[in-house]
Design brief:
It comes from Paenibacillus barcinonensis. This protein has about 80 residues and is mainly alpha-helical. The protein has 3 helices and no strands. The protein has a single domain, classed as Orthogonal Bundle (Helix Hairpins). The longest helix has 27 residues. The model has no long low-confidence stretch (mean pLDDT about 95).
Amino acid sequence: MMIPTLTRINELARKAKAVGLTEMEQAERTRLRQEYLQTFRGSVNDLLLNATIYDPNGDDVTPDKLKQEQASRQNP
């Protein structure tokens, strides 16, 4: 879903610089940007929820808040 959305956002950006956008195209651009950001933020959130952080000594230094969130997702 991200690639077609991003492609269309870029098309609208090029058109906006070249000739401008109609009101419908501006609304579409706004909607697509919101969808893209929601998808992107969800991906980053999922990535962080599956992360474990180690220091150079090999000790787990994952923040407690992240550990709690990971545990709550595993045990609904």
